[in-house]
Amino acid sequence: MADTAKRLIVVVIFEDVDLLDITGPPEVFALARRETADAADYHVVLAAETMDPVTTGAGVRVLPDLTFEQAAGRSINTLIVPGSVKVDDDRRVHPLVDPALVAWVKVLAARTRRITSVCVGAHVLAAAGLLDGKRATTHWSTAQQLAADHPEVEVDADPIFIREGNVWTGAGISACLDLSLALIADDLGEAVALRVARQLVMYLKRPSGQSQFSVPLEQISTTRRIEDLRHHILRHISEPLTVTDLAAYAHVSDRHLTRLFKNDLGTTPHAYIESVRVEKARHELETSDATLERIASLCGFGTTDTLVRAFRRRLNTTPTEYRRRFRVPQAL
Questions:
Q1: pLDDT at 17 over 80
Q2: Which of 11, 17, 119, 292 is catalytic?
Q3: What's the angle, vertex CA 282, arms to CA 279 and CA 285, rounded to 5?
Q4: Which of 200-204, 207-211, 252-256 has the lowest average pLDDT?
Q5: Is the CB of residue 325 less than 8 Å from the CB of residue 210?
């Protein structure tokens, strides 16, 4: 197989690997190729120790495109190391780290411009010494073990992904969609990454500093009426948006609107609107220098006191503290 791609992405696979870990990121890169009419030049391959089929933790068998030895002879743009876990009798989760795999990851990393881990794949990177002296994240359920096993790694369980030089670590499969989008933005710019995010129907392309524990906007509505209301709320988030206003927009009574939200999203209109406002405020705090007064106005809180109370209620922190911790550094 000729290595003609400018951006060769090698996904490491092995027995019992998490299936979503190896399928999520490639889907994002495939969409980037589609959105750029192949100008992205991404070429994703699966690499394993042999060419034999690999059985994932989900029981689905996948076929490697090349062996680790063959991959080591290529110039790799991005190496993606997924993870795998086992659950003991006490329901405790333990990442699987195979010494032979670690040895191959060391070899491949030396041929790679950019190294990433998906979820508990961070444990493999750590065992390979690739996270020494670096800040890194992993799935929250194994973060304590990563810190205990590798004291030379600064483990932060909160961000959805972390970049340290050419090493990127992600917190979980949904977070690694965000990480993949960030890799695309790094290669091709924010505009392309945002187009891909829209194709993925992701609410927001989240920056690295955002917490794994997010405001619950992921509810999927089952009716067009509620979906239309959700978009209406996003478009008019800086406005008062009372239940009566929304009911009038939807041509239903106040009581019927409340029932629709309860049945479809499991929450009240007021609670849902507040969650959207908090999410928008988080984004502003992470990516802008706007004052709290300005953010409160933009997000429909009206006053900074209302903004602060919503943050304490939903995130158990203040907007100022949130910005201090999660502000995304701006490129020079």
A1: yes
A2: 119
A3: 155
A4: 207-211
A5: no
Q: Is residue 176 annotated as a catalytic residue, yes or no?
A: no
Q: In whole angstroms, give the CA distance from residue 31 to residue 51.
A: 27
Give me the half-sphere count of Cα atoms (radius 13 Å) on the Cβ side of residue 307: 26
Per-residue pLDDT of 275-304, as tens digits, reads 999 989 988 998 899 999 999 999 999 999
List the one residue out of 228, 185, 203, 128 whose CA is nearest residue 136.
Answer: 128
Q: What is the mean pLDDT of the chain?
A: 87
* Both structure tokens of 314: 């939903």
Among candidates 30, 13, 34, which has minimal Cα distance to 22?
Answer: 13
In the chain, DSSP assigns E strands to 7-12, 42-48, 54-55, 61-62, 66-67, 76-81, 85-87, 93-95, 112-117, 135-136, 154-155, 161-164, 167-170
Find the farthest-apart pair of alpha carbons in the chain and give their distance in angstroms, rounded. Answer: 67
Instruction: Say what the pLDDT of residue 287 is.
Output: 86
Beta-carbon contacts of 94 under 8 Å, excluding residues fewer than 6 positions away, are 85, 86, 87, 88, 142, 145
Ramachandran region, residue 129 (left: φ > 0; alpha: ψ -120 to 50; beta: rest): left
- Give me the amino acid identity at 273: I
Three-class DSSP category at 111: coil
What is the per-residue DSSP string for 223-271? Answer: SHHHHHHHHHHHHTTTS---HHHHHHHHTS-HHHHHHHHHHHHSS-HHH
Residue 271: phi, psi to the nearest 5? Answer: -65, -40
CA distance 21 to 173: 6
Provide the CB-side half-sphere exposure for 89 (13 A, CA).
Answer: 0
